[in-house]
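Project channel, design review

CF: Before we commit to the Hominilimicola fabiformis constructs, I'd like one complete example in the thread so the newer folks can see what an input/output pair looks like. Taking Nickel pincer cofactor biosynthesis protein LarB.
RD: sounds good, go ahead.
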Amino acid sequence: MEQNEIRKLLQNVANGDILVDDALLHIKNEPFEDLGYAKPDFHRKSRQGVSEVIYGAGKTAEQIIGISKSFAEHGQKDILITRLDKAKAEKINKEIPLDYYDMANIGIIGSMPKERVGKIVIATGGTSDIPIAEEAAITAEMLGNNTVRLYDVGVAGIHRLLTHTEEIMTARVVIAIAGMEGALASVIGGLADCPVIAVPTSVGYGASFGGIAALLSMLNSCASGVSVVNIDNGFGAAFQASMINHMGGLNE
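CF: and here is what came back for Nickel pincer cofactor biosynthesis protein LarB:
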């Protein structure tokens, strides 16, 4: 159930149009379905404001199809699938129409929301960070946010970033994505008056330790207001940014 459906149900209880026990039964009805290999959560949106997202890595195309059909049967028409490779996407598309975003490794069943709010700026240190940035961007857009992409603006040529100070200073949230030493988050943190979510990537040479060097650098940022998600976690950064962007009844 969506939050507006629950609100309507509670209003009907308040008006005396429905009994309390009947309303409780309606809310409890089918919170999830046991498919054996998965238990799709139909109450996720009522609890968290966002429907359950399917993590595609490690799942077969057949399992993703089964989970998606279960969601659709319970009213969730728009489904986000992350970490989905092209081969699985093609199999799914034969059974369920799906839009595939190759760079982001994301599949979307249904459609993107037509109305989006606020502004989330997504910046990368280099071009090699773009796959993680696109995961963040497509996720943020699917969650109803306006996004601005600033790609390849790393500190090795900091003048490239400084030409975009207006976008950074007018953002509701900034997602800073970088590998190597991960310095981009600190620089942006020193320019922005909004939360900065840092995403370390596994881009870099041997001493970057698959993103651990960038992770530690971002965790030790001297810029206030910088938070950090896990290595290559563009989805997690976008989800957090969306929650911040939607706070306070933002409607611009």
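RD: helpful, thanks. The chain has a mean pLDDT of 88.
CF: The domain at 117-245 is CATH 3.40.50.1970 (Rossmann fold).
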